[in-house]
Each structure stands twice: as C-alpha cells, then as structure tokens.
Amino acid sequence: MVNDTDHLVITASPKPLSSYTHLVNGPSWYGPTAYVRPLGWVVIHGWRMRAVYVPAARNEGSAFMNHVALIWTTAGHTYGVGVGGPQSNAVTLRLAETLARQLVLTRP
User: Does the residue 56 lie in any domain?
Assistant: First the structure.
C-alpha cells in the first residue's frame, strides 16, 4: 500500500532509450558518472520491465533519486515508474509493481 511517506514518479520518452540511467535522469543526465543498480526483471501486462535502484549519490537532481524504478520500452517509447520511501528495496519494488499493474497506455 502506498502511503504519504512514499514518493511516486512516472516519466516517458518520446523515443526508445537504451540507457536506464538516461531515462531516470532525463534532461539532467550528465553522462558516465550517473549509475543505476539493476535489481532484476518483472513482466507486467506483457511488458518486460527492468527493475533498478537509483542511488542519490550517482543521480543528483533526478526525480528518481533513492527510488526503485521499473523501466520498459514499448511502441517506440521508453517508460519509467518509480517509488521511493522508507521501506526496503524489496518492499518498494512490490509497490512499484502494484503501480505498474494499474497503468493503461493509450494513444493520443
């Protein structure tokens, strides 16, 4: 269950991105010193998502700092959803999965 101490972030790129780090840092991406820590893979709605942890020390300025994020590419776009809070990464990953299960992508 998401509570008032959790922080939710959702982002999308208008084109596919090959770098998870680039997605979580967006326009503030500062190259090779930025880093995300892979946690595993999950599949939700047929989307194969990479689960990562985004450490603040290596991603300063990112809205995803200290968040567990799920990142995937589909239909020519890369998406990311992240949850940050006081829980362990395992608990936060389950919250991110719950959030991702509620997503519905639609055309404009």
Answer: yes
